Amino acid sequence: MQEKILVFGANGQIGTELVEQLRTIHGGSAIIACDIKDPDFAHRHDGPFEHGDVLQEASLQALFKKHKPTQVFHLAALLSAVGEQRPQVAWELNMNGLLHVLELAVEFKTAKVFWPSSIAVFGPGSPKHNTPQFCVMDPSTVYGISKLAGERWCEYYYLKHGLDVRSIRYPGLMGWKAEPGGGTTDYAVHIFREAIKRREYECFLRADTQIPMMYMPDAIRASLELMEAPAEKLTTRSAYNIAGLSFSPAMLAREIRKHIPQLTVTYLKNDHRQAIANSWPNSIDDSVAREDWNWQARFNLEDICEDMLDNLRKIALR
Ligand code: VAH
């Protein structure tokens, strides 16, 4: 069957790479990129684009009616750091945006829906190391609260309406194709650009702040593998833990210095994002995802640094 896939939040850090990958698999015209902002210059002609605001239910309904999507990827959200600056806006976008998409997916009989959760659903009371699929979850950010509530809503729409909605708790994500969007892990992308341009970086997290992270190619592959997994194999309809690797800013800086020995990094002491990072796990147990749909990360820190620097240097030279 010819897929018709709607991607909300298509111009974001995940969306930019997901749309590109989906268009490679299904063909450009099968993927309708949708965002409240115009696509950046590099991506503006890769395939169909629709302006859309997931908070405007009527215009969203018109998009569902026009395209009758077989799949929807709903990525639009405010992330952890920005969300703490604008808590009401974050809650409204992250919660009502999701509810509009779930409701319309049921109305228009969309076969599958993907929605990203985050390790931000865990909090100070969650086990810090190898945080399991099921445990105490007491998020202390609006972003984390909205993701935890969103997981419950996804499971509700699966159980009550039979909607095949699937979700992943992404770690912090790194990629070179799109800027991160205001999260607590954005440092792990900014440091590369600053290392290339200025050989120095002021990190907003302490040097020893260890956070679960993942390279974007692994993250995109995880979403697509989960969406392709046989429904009967899936034992979790809230969101799956997945793990890539865990590192601190100091560990990342040490790996980058193997390529740029002159890099100097200074560390802020009182940035508001430190408290957010402190509330998250150090590492994640992804045994349920491995068991249910054979999840397995591929990129280690050495591979990531090499690939990031190779590609960012090419961009810098343009
Ligand atoms: C953030 N990049 O920093 C996101 C992510 C685990 C972190 O959810 O908010």
Sum up the structure in keywords:
UDP-galactose 4-epimerase, domain 1, Rossmann fold, alpha/beta, 43% helix, binds (3R)-3-hydroxy-L-norvaline, single chain, 318 residues, 3-stranded mixed beta sheet, 12 strands, 2 domains, 11 helices
Written description of the protein model:
The chain is an alpha/beta fold. It folds into two domains: 5-171 and 216-233, NAD(P)-binding Rossmann-like Domain (Rossmann fold), CATH 3.40.50.720; 174-212 and 244-316, UDP-galactose 4-epimerase, domain 1. Helices cover 43% and strands 16% of the residues. The chain is built from eleven helices and twelve strands. The protein has helices at 13-26, 57-67, 80-85, 87-107, 142-161, 187-198, 216-228, 249-257, 272-278, 287-293, 301-317; strands spanning 5-8, 31-35, 49-51, 71-74, 112-118, 165-170, 172-174, 200-203, 211-215, 240-241, 245-247, 264-267. It has a seven-stranded parallel sheet with strand order 3-2-1-4-5-6-10, with helices on both faces. The longest helix is centred in the first third of the chain and has 21 residues, at 87-107. The chain is globular and about 55 Å long. The model has no long low-confidence stretch (mean pLDDT 96). The site of (3R)-3-hydroxy-L-norvaline has 13 residues, from β7.
User: How would you spell out the order of helices and strands?
Assistant: EHEEHEHHEHEEHEEHEEHEHHH
What is the CATH topology of the largest domain?
Rossmann fold
Assembly type of the shown chains? single chain
How would you sum up the major sheet?
Answer: 7 strands, parallel
